[in-house]
Design a protein that fits this description.
Helix content is 56%, strand content 11%. It contains nine helices and five strands; from the N terminus they run ααααααββαααβββ. A five-stranded mixed β-sheet has the order 3-2-1-4-5.
Length: 222
């Protein structure tokens, strides 16, 4: 199957697996249109502000847990970006091969955002902070792998169920980098509200830049 068709099928699989049949059926119509007419206009219309996906949302409450909600939403967004790029290529009469996709889709995530106490300078990263960081790395990698192997549905299921080996591996690597930096990690899926060090509520977002020379992050703000 062509890359565009594989991507649409993966979007349909994701929506079916999370129980959103109404939207899965819409994507099914887009697939039929593509297979019968090689037409990408329906997909583009359904996902514009006036399309049938205009009110579509994925969140932690919908998915049962914030963790599953984050990974599902991020995977869905990445698949949409891939489908939109492939649809644009199709409209322009261009062909996207895997070499092009590998070089253009996704990017190494250089910034991890964690809590920063503005009063005492304490920095702390939660499990959600880590997942927001690693998801951008893992999802693009697994989508590319799935397109290459023709098993994108399988990759998507592992991502939204948070069972991909890549997720566990990147989480471990990131926690070690935080430890080397002296940033506290807390296994809570949420945001830090009170500083555990000075009890202040003056909590802001602090950015940490991944060092290319050492296995640490470099704080970008105080």
């Amino acid at each position: 199957m062509e890359l565009y068709g594989l991507t649409l099928n993966a979007i349909k699989t994701l929506l079916t697996d999370i129980g959103m049949k109404k939207y899965a059926d819409i994507v099914g119509e887009c697939i039929d249109k593509w297979e019968s007419e090689k037409n990408v206009d329906m997909f583009r219309l359904e996902f514009n502000p006036k399309g049938r996906f205009a009110d579509f949302r994925i969140d932690g409450q919908t998915m049962g847990t914030p963790e599953k909600g984050l990974w599902t939403a991020q995977t869905f967004s990445a698949l949409l970006a891939m489908a939109a790029q492939l649809a644009d290529f199709q409209k322009r009469g261009m062909k996207a091969d895997m070499n092009f996709i590998r070089s253009r889709f996704g990017a190494a995530n250089e910034i991890l955002t964690a809590a920063l106490c503005k009063d005492c300078g304490h920095r702390e990263a939660t499990a959600m902070d880590v997942d927001k960081y690693v998801s951008k790395i893992v999802i693009s990698r697994r989508i590319i792998k799935g397109l290459e192997s023709g098993e994108l549905d399988k990759e998507v299921k592992e991502l939204i169920n948070v069972t991909s080996d890549d997720i566990a591996r990147e989480r471990r690597k990131t926690k070690l980098r935080l430890e080397n930096t002296g940033v506290v990690f807390t296994d809570v899926y949420g945001r830090l509200v009170n500083c555990p060090k000075c009890k202040s509520k003056n909590i802001a977002e602090g950015r940490l830049l991944r060092s290319l020379k050492e296995n640490v992050f470099v704080p970008l703000s105080k």
